[in-house]
Design a protein that fits this description.
Structural class of chain C: mainly alpha
Mean pLDDT of chain C: 78
Helix content of chain C: 55-70%
Number of strands of chain C: 0
Shape of chain A: elongated
Chains: A mainly alpha (116), B mainly alpha (157), C mainly alpha (121)
CATH topology of chain C: Helix Hairpins
Radius of gyration of chain C: 20 Å
Helix content of chain A: over 70%
Order of helices and strands of chain A: HHHE
Low-confidence stretches of chain C: 96-121
Largest interface: A-C, 73 and 77 residues
Shape of chain C: elongated
Number of helices of chain A: 3
Distance between the termini of chain A: 64 Å
Largest sheet of chain C: none
CATH class of chain C: Mainly Alpha
Number of domains of chain C: 1
Strand content of chain C: under 5%
Order of helices and strands of chain C: HHH
Oligomer: heterotrimer
């Protein structure tokens, strides 16, 4: 592999795996399920997406690169959907917010008045 | 008109996934896309959505920047020895009112720094957003309203 | 072996060491819970890490078919998470989703905790 292809592929690899590790670290350290979802849905998606792009770029085949890119787009589209569904399910299952939480407007309007 | 765009989009996605842009494969993709759209014909209503392509591109660019920023911010946050979190759920008053606009806004909010959409109120007036830093919810509401929501209104109205 | 190959090999080894660490940390979260949604989030993350790992393996071995496998795994993982979320929603009113240390989390400063959950669909 030429140097000019190896460098971007290596950068993508290192960045992707670093994001994955940090997302996992966030999953471990953050205090409640909602904050953990932030780590998993953002850093996790970007991490695996970057690794996929690295594999696509490293294949030196445009067809595979386009396919890897389509996979990346697919992850970006699906990550918020599953995060939203899980957050909603967790709240309806009455999983408590962390002690540090400052407000919970769920089921209320902007002034904190309950909607019926 | 919108259906034709969707059909062509599906065909392009098919060609991208299979990795070949020959005329034969594009034709096959067209047939498959038509079949897929035919199967869901009763579940989609023709909608009078006006799309402004340039504004959509601007929206996508803004989104990509925010996505990179958000992954970076979460990554930095978890490496700090002492995380100073003030999480919470705030109600975001919606200006957009059509289903696909709310969906788009909710997805964009989820992938931006520190916010994650949880639910829409039954009357569709509020979007409930979980934020990592909820100390100043009013500022967060203003950011979303002036950023993504304004851009969506520009792109699809 | 050219300089490019050496850089690439170093990056691949970095990823091959970092990803299992991420995998292990996520597994710890799956085990510790404390509630079912926590575990589902962690399982979702496990799938994401596995996808990344498969992509690295594709790069290392040169079998680019692995990329298609990674994408298929992404599809299945998404559907599994959706199914889990639906399951949590349907059981939300009947079964308690988790028992994370009663008393500790309750006494927090959380204003206006929602109790409307059960009334909704």
């Amino acid at each position: 592999m030429t140097l000019w292809l190896a460098i971007p592929v290596s950068i993508l690899l290192v960045a992707g795996s670093t994001f994955s590790v940090l997302a996992a670290l966030g999953l471990l350290r953050l205090p409640d399920v909602y904050t953990r979802m932030h780590a998993a849905s953002k850093a996790g998606t970007v991490g695996s997406g970057l690794l996929l792009m690295a594999a696509g770029l490293g294949s030196q085949d445009p067809a595979i690169l386009v396919r890897a890119f389509a996979g990346f787009i697919f992850f970006i589209l699906t990550a918020p959907v599953s995060a939203h569904l899980l957050a909603r399910a967790a709240h309806l299952a009455q999983v408590p917010l962390t002690k540090a939480s400052v407000r919970d407007d769920y089921g209320r309007d902007a002034n904190g008045d309950r909607l019926k | 008109m919108t259906r034709l765009v969707v059909l062509l989009l599906f065909t392009l996605v098919w060609a991208a996934i299979t990795g070949s842009f020959t005329a034969l494969n594009l034709g096959f993709g067209l047939v498959l896309s038509g079949l897929a759209l035919f199967l869901i014909r009763e579940n989609v209503q023709p909608s009078g959505i006006a799309i402004r392509p340039l504004k959509v591109v601007a929206l996508i660019l803004l989104f990509l920047r925010e996505l990179a920023l958000s992954a970076f911010k979460v990554a930095v946050l978890v490496t700090r020895p002492k995380m100073n979190l003030k999480p919470g759920i705030f109600a975001f008053p919606l200006r957009v009112n059509r289903d696909f606009e709310i969906t788009l806004l909710a997805n964009l909010i989820t992938l931006t720094p520190g916010t994650l959409s949880v639910d829409v109120s039954d009357d569709r007036r509020f979007l409930y957003v979980h934020a990592l830093d909820c100390a100043d919810a009013e500022a967060a509401i203003r950011d979303i309203a002036d950023g993504f929501e304004a851009k969506i209104l520009e792109a699809f109205r | 072996m050219t300089a490019g190959d050496q850089i690439l090999q170093a990056a691949i080894w970095f990823a091959l060491i970092a990803l299992p660490i991420a995998f292990l940390m996520t597994v710890i979260r799956v085990i510790r819970g404390p509630s079912l949604p926590d575990r589902v989030v962690a399982l979702d993350m496990l799938v994401a890490i596995a996808i990344g790992f498969i992509a690295v393996i594709a790069l290392k071995t040169g079998f680019h078919l692995y990329i298609d496998i990674a994408m298929a795994l992404g599809l299945v993982g998404f559907l599994a998470t959706i199914a889990f979320a639906r399951f949590l929603l349907t059981t939300a009113g009947k079964v308690k989703a988790g028992t994370p240390k009663p008393g500790v989390e309750k006494s927090g400063k959380v204003k206006r905790r929602s109790v409307t959950g059960r009334k909704r669909r």
